[in-house]
Design goal:
The complex is a heterodimer of chains A (about 325) and B (about 475).
Chain A (H helix, E strand, L loop, with lengths): L1 H29 L4 H29 L7 H17 L7 H20 L20 H38 L4 H9 L3 H15 L5 H41 L8 H21 L6 H24 L15
Chain B lengths: L9 H18 L2 H5 L3 H12 L18 H14 L2 H20 L6 H7 L12 H6 L9 H30 L6 H5 L3 E5 L4 H10 L3 E5 L2 E6 L9 E8 L3 E3 H4 L1 E2 L13 E11 L5 E11 L5 E8 L4 E3 L2 E17 L2 E7 L1 E2 L9 E7 L8 E7 L7 E11 L3 H19 L3 E8 L2 E8 L5 H11 L19
Antiparallel strand pairs in B: 1-18, 2-3, 3-17, 4-6, 4-16, 5-7, 7-8, 8-9, 10-11, 11-12, 11-16, 13-14, 14-15, 17-18
Helix pairs in contact in B: 3-8, 5-8
The chains are: A mainly alpha (about 325), B alpha+beta (about 475).
Chain lengths: ~325, ~475
């Protein structure tokens, strides 16, 4: 009882902190000078990180196994990974981009996890026989860390695309209609980037606008590449450890199960992204398009396949005899 | 004060190249050609430089002209295969085919596809069952189209390894000096008039490069330092207390499959039991197995469960399933009698087994009796059967080695590897460099470093100049 109360409290605290962080971000977009507010939003993300960590630890103690056995727990872990990426010192140099991406991403995963849509799987379920292995921690945590990093990176690429497309559109004096469509399609997360670019336009009104814009695009490109490379390593380790585990549990390391196949597709798409980067002519917009495709494919892999509920990875209603 | 530092993009580069070429003739240093290791190293550097160079090879080696016709074809095939757009197209094709394979239901009978993709109502206006069956999309992951695309991708990877990766490793292993022409051909190149090689070397060391100096040349790098067999498969459901021979269960699943000696091993299921959670759900199931050789001697005994298989003589036995085989009934202290149980199909994934105990005269037309249902082995006397998967796959170590290599190389490729060449020509310094990662940032880093190179003023020693444009 005390565990579930604690869990409840932690969930709500983390959710509200993320909401506050996003609000402060919006304010800092409009008024660039308030540095204190920006600092507080940084602290907010760190607070969120510790809240979600506490939440996961609570669940771990309470259920007695690593809290990654169903979709709800994996969503919580995903938002934990987002906040983890944020506080990793390596990316410290460039927190402004990442926190604009991470804040909304975390609130969406957190919000979806705690929303009424998934109430029936909130309870920590028992661990089915096939999941009782040390590989669970390795495989699932690597996969979700990989998803989180790849989502961040591809969102940065989407932002890059939006700004690049916007530039061209401005040139032709066409309307913003398609852009709004895009914005709502990607769950509104891009709107933040739009706003950011708006600010950029306003502030750089008297300065050479295109220079700032190209600098900004270059920065986005660089960081999305860095984050995606990191996520790609996690994804590789995750898929391979999954294959080794499958060989232990099911006697075959690759069985073309939908989840496996889509994870492989994700891997290939990001491999394409990394290859387009080796050609200097294709950098920027072209590789950003590939990364945006990757963004959609991660969601298909993560949610779409689960919604179908087929194959070996359907742990909501898992039985071993599914093949 | 004429040092100029430019922010260069690729377009600038190509423009500058043509400009620089006119300069080039003036800058050639005669003593360079005499230096022994240079020409060989330069050749390697060039082939590693970029892919397009390999299409029109450098004119220097003359011995190849005789074999040119013979060598031309493989070289052309190589250059086509190692083409980056082709490789990317192949990867997209593989991804698309796999996605299609998850959308189309796999492994059904042809009738299923006749119904699902009828000719009079095609999906997207053209996709009918003819497509599915002709292209083998009903069994996508073993269809010739899919395997062919994979093979093409594999060929591209090998070609790319041959033409690009191996030279890169070679260059990384041995420090190689380039002459001025080759230096200019690098992704990044710049010329500093009135600068000293030694100063550049010191600055590069300060920036974490390994620097090698030889006469008028310099080389520096950062980062990477020298950087199906046949199988058998089978599955069996064995009631507790019975035996089976491994060889009877296994069927070959690869074209190189040959049975081994351990196929004669007999497996006896000593006991099958299950663990439950407090809520009654199955938590784990176990089989206590004994292995006997041909002479009836027990060679191994182990209790296996899901995730904990048994390995013996190259054969692996996995616990994958269970069922109920018989219900034990004691009648008037006699027995126990075994009533065979049959699985019942119900909605959902929960298992249910049923049996029927006749009461009274079994020969009469309307048999009365008791039907009994069981969900699992809890609180009943029943004989469970264990579902075992048996597999022998000698290829697993190779596959695991591949996994290890893939993980290692993915991690290594995340590390960046940058190389710099420089050449002192009088007071002018020719600098070239390339990197495998962060291609956009490398010129910036180079410009920043080159900004620090002190300018040589004619009379005095080197002084730090401060009016550069970035």
């Amino acid at each position: 009882m005390i565990f579930s109360t604690l869990e409840h409290i932690l969930t709500h605290i983390s959710f509200s902190i993320v909401s506050i962080v996003i609000t402060t971000h919006l304010i800092t977009f409009l008024v660039d000078e308030i540095i204190k507010l920006y600092d507080s939003s940084e602290k907010g993300i760190i607070m969120t990180f510790f809240c979600i960590t506490g939440l996961l630890v609570t669940r771990w103690i309470y259920s007695g196994h690593f809290p990654l056995s169903n979709l709800y727990e994996s969503l919580i872990f995903l938002s934990w990974s987002f906040s983890l990426i944020h506080i990793v010192p390596y990316f410290k140099k460039n927190q402004k981009f990442l926190s604009t991406i991470i804040g909304p991403s975390a609130i969406f995963t957190q919000g979806f996890a705690t929303s009424g849509l998934l109430t029936e799987i909130h309870e920590s379920t028992i661990l089915v026989p096939a999941l009782q292995s040390e590989w669970l921690i390795m495989h699932v945590s690597m996969m979700i860390l990989g998803y989180a990093a790849l989502l961040c990176g591809s969102l940065l690429s989407v932002a890059l695309l939006v700004i690049a497309v916007r530039k061209n559109r401005k040139f032709f004096f066409t309307s913003n209609h398609l852009l709004n469509l895009n914005g709502s399609f990607f769950f509104g997360e891009i709107e933040y980037m739009n706003e950011r670019s708006n600010v950029l336009q306003n502030t750089s009104f008297f300065s050479p606008k295109n220079y700032y814009r190209s600098q900004f695009i270059q920065q986005l490109d660089y960081w999305s590449y860095r984050v995606i490379s990191l996520g790609f390593i996690f994804l590789t380790i995750g898929i391979l450890s999954g294959a080794v585990w499958a060989n232990e549990a099911w006697g075959s390391y690759w069985s073309w199960d939908p989840k496996e196949t889509w994870a492989f597709i994700t891997w290939i798409v990001f491999a394409i992204y990394l290859h387009t980067r080796t050609n200097i002519k294709w950098k920027g917009t072209n590789s950003a398009i590939v990364a945006s495709i990757g963004f959609l494919i991660i969601w298909i892999c993560y949610f779409g396949v689960n919604l179908l509920g087929i194959g070996l990875h359907s742990y909501g209603s898992f039985t071993l005899t599914s093949n | 004060m004429t040092v100029s530092c430019k922010l260069k993009t690729s377009k600038n580069d190509s423009n500058n190249k043509s400009k620089n070429k006119s300069l080039q003739t003036k800058i050639v240093v005669p003593e360079l050609d005499g230096a022994p290791a240079l020409s060989e190293a330069a050749e390697e550097g060039e082939s590693a430089g970029d892919r397009s160079v390999s299409v029109n090879p450098p004119p220097s080696p003359s011995k190849k002209s005789g074999l040119g016709m013979l060598k031309g074809l493989p070289r052309r095939v190589l250059s086509v295969l190692s083409n980056l757009p082709l490789a990317i197209a192949e990867m997209f094709a593989v991804a698309a085919l796999m996605a299609l394979g998850t959308i189309i239901d796999q492994g059904e009978a042809p009738d299923y596809y006749f119904q699902k993709y009828p000719e009079d109502n095609p999906v997207f206006g053209f996709f009918t069952w003819r497509w599915v069956l002709t292209l083998g999309f009903d069994r996508m992951f073993s269809s010739p189209v899919f395997l062919g695309t994979l093979a093409l991708l594999g060929a591209s990877l090998i070609a790319c390894t041959y033409t690009t990766q191996i030279p890169v490793v070679k260059v990384a292993k041995r420090w190689s000096f380039l002459h001025s022409e080759a230096i200019r051909r690098q992704e990044y190149s710049d010329t500093l008039p009135r600068a000293s090689l030694q100063d550049l070397g010191i600055i590069l060391v300060g920036a974490g490069y390994e620097v090698f100096l030889k006469g008028p040349s310099l080389y520096a790098f950062k980062g990477l330092a020298g950087s199906a067999t046949g199988s058998f498969k089978g599955s069996v459901t064995v009631p507790q207390g019975l035996n089976f021979v491994i060889g009877d269960v296994l069927g070959p699943s690869g074209f190189l499959s040959t049975p081994s000696e351990s196929f004669n091993t007999e497996v006896h299921v000593n006991r099958f039991y299950m663990d439950y959670y407090d809520s009654g759900e199955v938590s784990q199931f176990y089989s206590d197995l004994s292995l006997f050789d041909l002479n009836g001697k027990e060679v191994m005994r182990k209790t296996i469960s899901v995730n904990h298989p048994l390995r013996y003589g190259g054969i692996t036995i996995y616990q994958t399933d269970w069922s109920l085989s018989a219900l034990q009934v004691i009648k008037d202290d006699e027995g126990p009698y075994n009533l065979a149980m049959a699985p019942l199909k119900i909605n959902g994934d929960k298992k249910l087994y049923g049996t029927f105990l006749p009461v009274g005269d079994a020969d009469s037309p309307d048999v009365k009796g008791i039907s009994m249902l069981a969900r699992d082995l809890q609180s009943i006397d029943a004989i469970g059967s264990t579902g075992l998967d048996i597999k022998t796959d000698p290829g697993v170590p190779i596959v695991y080695a591949g996994f290890g290599a893939l993980m290692l190389t993915t991690c290594i490729s995340f590390l960046s590897h940058s190389q710099i060449w420089a050449l002192q020509d009088g007071t002018t310094l020719v600098i070239g460099g390339k990197t495998n990662r962060a291609k956009g940032e490398f010129p910036e880093e180079m410009n920043r470093l080159l900004d620090q190179v002190p300018e040589i003023v004619e009379s005095t020693s080197s002084t730090r100049s401060d009016n550069f444009s970035g």
